[in-house]
Amino acid sequence: MGKINIKKTNYELKIKKSDISQYKKPNEIPILPLRNTVLFPNHSIPLYIGREHSLALLNSIKNGNRLFAVVSQTDISNENPTFDNVYKYGTLAILEKIVNMPNQFISIFIQGLERVKIHSFEKNKNPFYTGTIEIIEETKLNRTESPKNVKIIKSLFNKLSKKTKYITMDHVNFINEIYSLSSLIDNITAIIQIPIPKKQAILQTANIKNRMNLIIEFLNEAIQSTEIEKKINSDVNNALNENQRKHVLRQKLIAIQKELGEDDVETEELSEKLEKAKLSKEAKVTAEKEMNRLKRIPKISPEYNMIRTYLEWLSDLPWEKTTNDNLQISKAEKILNEDHYGLDKVKLRILEYLAVRKLKLQKDKNSAVKGPILCFIGPPGVGKTSVGKSIARAMGREFYRISLGGIRDESEIRGHRRTYIGSLPGRIIKGMQKVGVNNPIFMLDEIDKLGNDFRGDPSSALLEVLDPEQNYSFTDNYLEVPFDLQNVMFIATANWYETIPGPLRDRMEFISFSGYLVDEKIQIANKFLIPKQIEEHGLTSRNISFTKKSVELIIEEYTKESGVRDLERQIAKICRKVAKSIVESIKKSKVVITNDEVRKYLGIQKFYSEVAERMVKPGIAIGLAWTVVGGDILFIEASKMSGKGELILTGQLGDVMKESAQATMSFIRANSKKLKIDSNFNTKYDIHIHIPAGAIPKDGPSAGITLLTAIVSVLTDKKVKNNIAMTGEITLRGTVLPVGGIKEKVIAAYRAGLREIILPEKNEDDLKEIQKKVLKKIKFHFVKDMLDVIKIAIEK
Fold first, then answer.
1. Closest by CA position to 244, among listed 295, 308, 294, 300
2. Chain centre distance of CA 623
3. Enzyme catalytic residues
4. What is the per-residue pLDDT across 188-216, written as a single tens digit (0 to 9) for each?
5. DSSP calls for 107-160
């Protein structure tokens, strides 16, 4: 709604009595809410109109009788006020003039006519507000009293005008020409600078005598306020000499505080606060020294605020305040099981910590148990962060999370020195101040994504924080006194082990979070995700339910992840569509989500099992890869063509994989007889190795035996078994070397339906970390030599 186009911008005020008299009884009318403005009867004001509902109101009334009501908002920040956000008394007004402004705003002039009571206020039928109003009949004074009171009020107004600058001679002349008591009070109230609630009090007072008493009270208060301000200015000016003129503002502030009797209240309160904080010995000495400095510095000085802020930080920190741990092992175990399915190693580690703490406290109540530094490592969406919250709930401790991803400034951890303006403590001390206890659980999220630049190395700053032998005296640059972090239980999370700086790795105990199996995802969905999303979307179990098959279908055909984050998004998508159908009354009965309903709501299938389709020709082998989002299967394709032995590599391979491919070709040429391959193949054929998903960079030492198998397969025209996957690196002599990420890789193969896996012999012990139900369904082949891989993998 832009401009309001009208032919005439000046209206003559021609109002019929019937137009106004109809509102002596409750009647409906357009209503314009105002911010920071009160309109009085017999008073005209200009307004700038920009809100859509206000512009719509002007468009509606401009060609009619131009009557509407205005009411002031109690909450001026609200763009779309309700009945609760406006006063219940306003003014009946008439639109006098409209002027289109160049900035898409509208300037209007309106005149107040009558006081009205607002019975209702809404915006349902029209794009603007309407409501029911009723004119308030005001009570009159005796004819003999009115002139006398007019004279008193004019006298006070004239007195105030001499003491202020905002009341001009035009105002004074205008007021002196008014002889109606009611009109005089309304116009003076509109002119003088008093708060909106006081102006509103006069507007909604129908009794003229009470209204008169209010304006006399407000005028007297305004006169006294100006006299006090004048006295303060006079006192300051008398105390000044030539050398003190640069400190005018400082002396003025001191005079104001003296007038209010607030000389030393702040410092006294701060001293009491520091006394109650039970500071450490070093902190107490520093606080006393800074407090003595604070008392000697003028309050207007910038240094005053710096010292006061520092002392407030000292007083707010929990130097001795702790929470009592829940040492009932069975109760803690129950809470952990309620919040998360599986994750047995994590739960066991927490219960062990509680058991040790309980035994230590039984021996000595004052003994301290150093908080362990745990690091949950695994792909996104497997519950690393949420487990931290569950641990805090199980132990009865406060929880605080710090996201370290992308932090490059050392001062984020250790704080800024107080030599800088606006200095503050680092995130560790801020967290301790926020939780209010000295033994919380601190979650250091994404510790593998720390950076460093010219502003320092945050990982080095974390060394003191995460070292149990040092963190009892952690010193923040801002505080400059030691703070004990020994009772804090630190939990870090990471996706990738290798990118965590070595010194930090040395201080942490790693607990691996591998991806979930389909059965585990179904359990998590039924116990946690589905009930959570049903509640968040305003549904109940009476509206919607999921069958086990439908959840399994969502997992297998619409998600491809180690965690359950995307699974939760797909469940939320279904809940949204069901909620919409219920609101639109399309679905009146309970919706049971079956396979057909899943396909209806989620659309075409997103992920397919490629194993059976790919493994139909020679030259294709399945490798296993580790990524930051968990394990994955990797198809490696090899093709031969007439040529001169050129090796072509495509698919965005990194340097490690390129070198593996070259080593593979050398091994095949050296062992061509054992592999039953024409020894002159390199003079007859070019070999092209391609790994699909070319937009994704791939690198790592895990694909050596897979590359070799694919090339041997294409050179011998024999297919690789279609249900076998492999991982391992090779040497030029054909030795199969161990690789990492075995647990994630095996689970990825299991999810893909592969039931045979070739692994390096030295990786056999890594299978101990994998669930027994996975190991039972997969046949493992452990190899030392590359020729053994060929015998197992390639069909005879």
1. 300
2. 39
3. 702, 745
4. 988 888 899 999 999 998 888 888 899 88
5. EEEEEEEEEEEE---B-SSSSS-EEEEEEPPPBPPPTTHHHHHHHHHHHHHHHH
